[in-house]
Amino acid sequence: MNEIVLVTGGTGFVARWCIASLLERGYRVRTTVRDLGKAETVRRSIATVSDATGHLSFVKADLMSDDGWAAAMNGCTYALHVASPLGVAAGSSRDAYVRPARDGTLRVLSAAVDAGVRRVVMTSAAAATRPPLASGLLSDETRWADPDDPQFDNYRVSKILAERAAWTFMKGKATEFSTVLPGAVFGPVLSSENLGSVKIIGDLVAGRPRFLPRLGFWVVDVRDLADLHVTAMTAPQAAGERFIAAGDFQWMEDIAATLRSGLGPNGSKVPTRRLPTALVRLLAPLSADLKPLAPLLGRKFALTSEKARRMLGFAPRPVSATVLDCAQSLIKMRA
User: Fold this and answer.
1) pLDDT, greater one: 268 or 153
2) Predicted model pTM
């Protein structure tokens, strides 16, 4: 197969698995990195799950700069825009998150359109479909979250506004466009950097926090997420569509119980006791980690991935397998 796929942000957790999924299907893959000095480290990590890294190449490009994007897109049939801006300090203003996410996305899409790329698939977030928490409404692909809703932190606001800007920009363009909106992404890691939500699993294995807040997540395995990106890239029916990628909902105490029962001695530090929600709400304003999660305490909001299952054959694996594979890969990496 001579078709080239560009994957943005090759050092990222999701991007590495997207690259591996593409290589295993016979595509030639080009990926962007901000520092070419990291290219061989990325190649070696992907080689642990794919024998086809000879078909992987690298180009330098940064979401915050126009440089490199025309060359990155040149000759590509498809593009997966997975990258998110890095380096935004905790506590930064809303604009500090929104501008790089939105402007970087528009930079990628503009280059793709100019290069005549057939289809771009963008990674958004399931939060971009979330209604007000007390509404009782279902999160599905027909819904757009309100970026001014106080439930959202600056990072999630940036994802909402970046996807909105992308759909507006791509309207009427010859290049086809689709978005994939994942829940909390867990699963085996190929690198110790850019782990995102995987840090939740790593902390639990290490015994943090000592007491579990009543927080829950719609979980998706990174391998299933990568495969869904590739399916959305080529399936004719996926053009012009949004797809939520999520498996089952899990409370943190459910995840902790899976880890303790499935990891043997390696799960001995996993906490078991729940912290009262009233106390967490009291402490949340004092914690940089808890503050953005405070609106979600004790809430299981309704969400569906039925569209991805029906249209693209999305079949997420059991959450227990995802959580244990994630933890075991972290333990192995730290050994």
Assistant:
1) 268
2) 0.95
